[in-house]
Automatic annotation (TrEMBL):
This is Phenylalanine--tRNA ligase alpha subunit. Binds 2 magnesium ions per tetramer. It catalyses: tRNA(Phe) + L-phenylalanine + ATP = L-phenylalanyl-tRNA(Phe) + AMP + diphosphate + H(+). Residues 110-346 form the Aminoacyl-transfer RNA synthetases class-II family profile domain. It comes from Hyphococcus flavus. It holds the Pfam family tRNA-synt_2d. Its cofactor is Mg(2+).
């Protein structure tokens, strides 16, 4: 056996014996790397006589190519084996039934948020989100709250310690600042809903320092009060799953809308139960209005070109009303028995095709 043949057979068996990609890489470096045996042999070509080189050149090149190919082939088969091994360990049998001991319920707030998202997604709305910690500009100023206006105090705001530059960050008191963030970053038409946590220093049977809102915002060249009413009426009918829910709009004041309104729904309370779609009593469920021209201007939009409508509603309250939950504070008490009773099946995702709630 010539020297080259011996070398080739030695390298070939090392390649075949490599049991991992790392081991194979070691063989490759030892053979074809800068200081590898084959590379060192290639370097001797320069010192050979022309006749010798004519013979050794092709022989060495052939050796180099065959070794490189053998390494590639071995690499491919090692990779395939590794993938097979991984697939074998990560196999999931999707036909297995849910184990009886798998417990857990969806919290009514998550449920109701998902229901609201499902309803407005079907109407063509996107979901937008923003930070819980806000600055004065997004939470108040850009929303047309005048400086030192009592409305700022009305919100019972949680402020942080002032920063070095005097600026006080705050926990957002409503989801409306995300309207501002969206209008500053996105060209109309805008059609969004904004679910999220909100914070006010307040606590009793119907108020908690942290609560949840869903905000809605539509900005377009033609958006008017009729669209606002139609959108919200369609929403309450679908949400409460009652076709003849009665609604009425009462004039109200918000700094960021003009005109502003509160929407009430008709109900009757009978033997400790609230029934919608009947009776002659009214209950307020959300605030709304046409986006104030100043708010559009603060976001760089021309109020002569664009109009918008918006609304904001309390998720916790909607959840209490729809599912007959008497005390808001229980939402945050982390009581597993309460959740077992009021919670929802995690496998049933709310959607309009199969039903919002079961
Ligand atoms: N931000 C208001 C609040 O927290 C709710 C609200 C009212 C939002 C009217 C709106 C709106 O977008 O148009 O009390």
């Amino acid at each position: 056996m010539s020297e080259l043949e011996a070398l080739e057979s030695d390298l070939t068996s090392k390649i075949n014996d490599a049991s991992s990609e790392a081991a194979l890489e070691e063989v490759r470096v030892a053979a074809l790397g800068k200081k590898g045996v084959v590379s060192e042999k290639m370097k001797t070509l320069g010192k050979m006589s022309p006749e010798e080189r004519k013979e050794m050149g092709p022989a060495l090149n052939g050796l180099k190519n065959r070794i490189a190919e053998a390494i590639e082939a071995k690499k491919a088969s090692l990779e395939e084996a590794a993938l097979d091994a991984r697939l074998a360990t990560e196999k999931v049998d999707v036909t297995l039934p849910i184990r009886p001991e798998a417990k857990g319920k969806i919290h009514p707030i998550s449920q109701v948020t998902e229901e609201i998202v499902a309803i407005f997604s079907a109407m063509g709305f996107d979901v937008a989100e923003g930070p819980d910690i806000e600055d004065d500009f997004h939470n108040f100023t850009a929303l047309n709250f005048p400086p030192d206006h009592p409305a700022r105090e009305m919100h019972d705001t949680f402020f942080f310690e002032p920063k070095e530059d005097g600026q006080r960050m705050l926990l957002r008191t409503h989801t409306s600042p995300v309207q501002i963030r969206t209008m500053l970053n996105q060209k109309p038409p805008i059609r969004i809903i904004i679910p999220g946590r909100t914070f006010r220093c307040d606590s009793d049977q119907t108020h908690t320092p942290m609560f949840h809102q869903v905000e809605g915002l539509v900005v377009d060249k033609e958006a008017h009060m009729g669209h606002l009413k139609g959108t919200l009426e369609a929403f309450v009918k679908t949400f409460f799953e009652i076709d003849d829910v009665k609604t009425r709009f009462r004039p109200h004041f918000f700094p960021f809308t003009e005109p502003s309104a509160e929407m009430d729904i008709g109900y009757e309370s009978a033997s400790n139960e609230i029934r919608f779609g009947q009776g002659s009593d009214w209950m307020e469920i959300l605030g709304c209005g046409m986006v104030h021209p100043n708010v559009l201007r603060n976001c760089g939009l021309d109020p002569d070109e664009y109009q918008g409508f918006a609304w904001g509603m309390g998720v916790d309250r909607l959840a209490m009303l729809k599912y007959g939950i008497p005390d808001l504070r229980d939402f945050f008490a982390a009581d597993a028995r309460w959740l077992e009773h009021y919670g929802f099946d995690p496998v049933d995702q709310p959607n309009l095709a199969t039903g919002l709630s079961r």
